[in-house]
Design brief:
Number of strands: 10
Number of domains: 2
Radius of gyration: 35 Å
CATH architecture of the largest domain: Up-down Bundle
CATH superfamily of the largest domain: ABC transporter type 1, transmembrane domain
CATH topology of the largest domain: ABC transporter transmembrane region fold
Strand order of the largest sheet: 6-7-8-3-9-10
Shape: elongated
Distance between the termini: 58 Å
Number of helices: 22
Helix content: 55-70%
C-alpha cells in the first residue's frame, strides 16, 4: 500500500520503486558504516583514557590500523554501491520514463492534444521529468535511508542512556514536523510558480509564431510589455517561493542543531551528578556530529520533493488518460465508410447529432455546409482521430472503434486544411507518406501533385530544407507537398479536407486532374468550398448545425427546389461568401 502511494506521489514505475528501495537500503548501510567509524575512534579514546586512569596498555597499533583499513575499504565499496543504486539505476530509469511518455502520447486520442496547451505539455515532458529525475536520484533514497538508519541508531542510543538519547535526538522529529506541516504552503507556492512560468512560455511561443502579424499591425511594444509583466510576475513569485522554502528549511535545520546544545548541557549535568562517565558523554558527542549528516542533504532537498509532487501529478495525468486501443488486425470487406447515427460532443458542446450516411468505395463523397456544421469533424471521426460519443462508424463492416488507430490508419491517406510539415527536405517530407519509398516514387507523387514547378526553383531542388513547418514555402506550396505525401501512400481510403484551398485556379485544375486519375477506385471523402470540386463528386452530403439535411448527387440536389444545397450554390455564384 505504501509502495503504491510512493508511486503515485512521485510518478514512479514499478522498476523505479524497486530502485528507490535499493537506494534506501544502501544508504542505511552507508550511514551505519560511517557510524562504525565513530566507534573505531571511541575504541581508541577509550583505550587512551584507560591508560591515563589505570595505567592499562594502549591498544596495539596494528589492531587500530586494521580497523581503520577495514573501515576505509568497507566505506569505499558501500559508497560505490550507494552511488550505483541512487544515481546509475535512476539515470537508466529516466530514459525508460521518457520513452514510456512518448509511447503513451503516441496512443492518446487527438482530442487530448486539443484540450492541452502545447507549451504546458512540453514543460511536462521536459521540465517536470527533469525535476523528478533529480528527486529520484538525490532525494528519495537518501531521505528514506536516513529515516531507517536514524531509527536504528536511536534504538542503540536509548539502550546506552535514554536521557542522553532524548537530548541528542529530540530535534529531528520536531524539524521534520515543521517541514511537513508547511507542505501545503509550499505546494501552493510551487503551483503558482508553475502557472507563472507557463504564462511566460505561452507568451514567448505566441509571439514567435505570430511575429509577422505582430509586426504587420505594429503591436511589438504591446506584446513585449505584456511579456515583461509576465516575466516580472514569475521572478516575484520565484523569490517569494524561495523565501518561504528557505524559512522553513533553515528553521528546521536550526531546530535540529539545537540538539547539539542540549546534548552538551545534559551530558555535563549528568557527568557532574555522577550519573554517567565522561566517555559516555564523549560517545554521544561523537554520534551527534554524525547523526545529523544524513539529514543535511535531505533537509535541503525535502522542499524540492514537495514541489516535485506537482510535477508528478502532471505526469500521472498523462498516464491516467485512456488511450485509443483496439485490435491489431484490420480486415474489412471492402472500404465503404458507414456513419450510423453518429453523435459527437467536444467539451460538452454538441458538434454532431445523429449523423448517418455512407461513403461508397470507388466514389467521391463530398461533405458540404456552412462553417461550423461538422464537416471536418466527420473526416476526423472517420479516421478515428477522435472517438464518437454515440453511434458507430464502420469501414467494410468493421467498427473502427474496435481497431487500433495505428493499424486502422494504414488504410488512410489524409490531407487536411492545416498542413503539418517537418524541418527537413522536400524529399523527406513527401517520403513520410510511405516508409522506404524510392526517390523515383517520391518524384512521381510530387509531379502528380504539381510540386515540380516550385521545387525546381529551390536551391537544392528536392533536397532543399524547408524550415520548421515549411516556413520557407508559401501556403499553396506547403499544401501541394501534403497532397504529394497522400498520393505516395496510395491508401484505399482518402480524406481531403479543403485540400486545394490554397491553390490558384490553374494549379487547382492540375491537382484536381491528378487526383481524379490517382484516386480512381478508392473511397474518397472530400470537404471543399469550391463548387467545381463539389460538382465532380459522385455524392454530396449536406450538413447544417451538425445534422444531415440533404443527400444525393450534385445534379439531384441542384434540381431540388428551395433546397439547402441549391441555395448555397446560388449564393456562391453571387459571391455571397458561403463556405461550401
Amino acid at each position: 500500500m505504501m509502495g503504491e502511494q510512493l508511486k503515485r506521489k512521485y510518478a514512479l514505475t514499478d522498476k523505479g520503486l524497486a530502485n528507490t528501495k535499493k537506494g534506501a537500503a544502501w544508504t542505511v548501510i552507508v550511514n551505519l558504516t560511517m557510524m562504525a567509524g565513530m566507534g573505531i575512534l571511541y575504541y581508541l579514546m577509550q583505550g587512551y583514557m584507560d591508560t591515563l586512569t589505570s595505567g592499562a596498555p594502549l591498544p596495539r597499533a596494528w589492531v587500530f590500523l586494521g580497523l581503520v583499513a577495514a573501515f576505509v575499504v568497507l566505506s569505499f565499496f558501500t559508497h560505490l554501491e550507494q552511488y550505483h543504486t541512487t544515481y546509475g539505476l535512476v539515470y537508466r530509469e529516466i530514459k525508460d520514463t521518457r520513452i514510456s511518455i512518448a509511447e503513451r502520447l503516441r496512443k492518446l486520442p487527438l482530442g487530448y492534444f486539443g484540450k492541452r496547451d502545447l507549451a504546458d505539455l512540453t514543460e511536462t515532458i521536459m521540465g517536470d521529468v527533469n525535476r523528478l529525475e533529480h528527486v529520484w536520484s538525490h532525494c528519495l533514497g537518501y531521505l528514506y535511508g536516513a529515516y531507517i538508519s536514524t531509527a536504528i541508531i536511536a534504538v542503540m542510543l536509548f539502550v546506552y542512556d535514554w536521557r542522553m538519547a532524548l537530548a541528542c535526538l529530540w530535534g529531528v522529529p520536531v524539524a521534520f514536523l515543521l517541514l511537513f506541516g508547511s507542505r501545503r504552503i509550499q505546494k501552493r507556492s510551487s503551483q503558482k510558480l508553475k502557472a507563472d512560468a507557463l504564462a511566460v512560455s505561452d507568451n514567448i511561443q505566441e509571439s514567435i509564431e505570430n511575429i509577422r502579424e505582430i509586426r504587420a499591425t505594429n503591436r511589438e511594444k504591446e506584446y513585449l510589455d505584456r511579456l515583461y509583466q509576465k516575466i516580472d510576475r514569475f521572478e516575484s513569485t520565484n523569490r517569494k517561493g524561495e523565501l518561504v522554502i528557505g524559512l522553513f528549511v533553515n528553521g528546521a535545520s536550526i531546530i535540529m542543531r539545537l540538539g547539539v546544545a542540549t546534548t552538551i548541557l545534559t551530558g555535563a549535568s549528568l557527568v557532574l551528578k555522577g550519573s554517567i562517565d565522561f566517555m559516555l558523554m564523549f560517545l554521544f558527542l561523537m554520534v551527534i556530529t554524525r547523526i545529523y549528516a544524513p539529514f543535511d542533504q535531505a533537509l535541503a532537498l525535502i522542499a524540492e520533493m514537495f514541489v516535485s509532487q506537482v510535477s508528478a501529478s502532471r505526469l500521472n495525468e498523462i498516464h491516467d488518460t485512456p488511450t485509443a486501443e483496439g485490435a491489431e488486425v484490420f480486415e474489412p470487406k471492402g472500404h465503404d465508410i458507414v456513419f450510423d447515427n453518429v453523435s459527437f460532443a467536444y467539451d460538452d458542446h454538441d458538434v454532431l447529432k445523429g449523423v448517418s450516411f455512407t461513403a461508397k468505395e470507388g466514389e467521391v463523397t463530398a461533405l458540404v455546409g456552412p462553417s461550423g456544421s461538422g464537416k471536418s469533424t466527420c473526416a476526423r471521426l472517420a479516421a478515428r482521430l477522435w472517438d464518437v460519443s454515440k453511434g458507430s462508424i464502420k469501414v467494410g463492416g468493421v467498427d473502427i472503434s474496435t481497431v487500433d488507430p495505428e493499424v486502422l490508419l494504414t488504410d488512410y491517406s489524409m490531407v487536411f486544411q492545416d498542413v503539418v510539415l517537418f524541418d527537413d527536405t522536400v524529399m523527406e517530407n513527401i517520403r513520410l507518406g510511405k516508409h522506404g519509398a524510392t526517390d523515383e516514387e517520391v518524384r512521381a507523387a510530387a509531379a502528380a501533385a504539381n510540386c515540380d514547378e516550385f521545387v525546381e526553383k529551390l536551391p537544392q531542388g528536392y533536397h532543399t530544407p524547408i524550415g520548421e513547418n515549411g516556413a520557407k514555402l508559401s501556403g499553396g506550396e506547403r499544401q501541394r507537398i501534403s497532397i504529394a505525401r497522400a498520393l505516395l501512400k496510395n491508401a484505399p481510403i482518402v480524406l481531403l479536407d479543403e485540400a486545394t484551398a490554397s491553390l490558384d485556379v490553374e494549379n487547382e485544375t492540375k491537382v484536381q486532374g491528378a487526383l481524379s486519375r490517382l484516386l480512381a477506385g478508392k473511397t474518397v471523402l472530400v470537404i471543399a468550398h469550391r463548387m467545381r470540386t463539389v460538382e465532380a463528386a459522385d455524392k454530396i452530403v449536406v450538413l447544417t448545425e451538425g445534422q444531415v439535411v440533404e443527400e444525393g448527387s450534385p445534379a439531384e440536389l441542384l434540381a431540388r427546389e428551395n433546397g439547402v444545397f441549391q441555395r448555397m450554390a446560388q449564393l456562391q455564384s453571387a459571391s455571397a461568401g458561403w463556405s461550401i
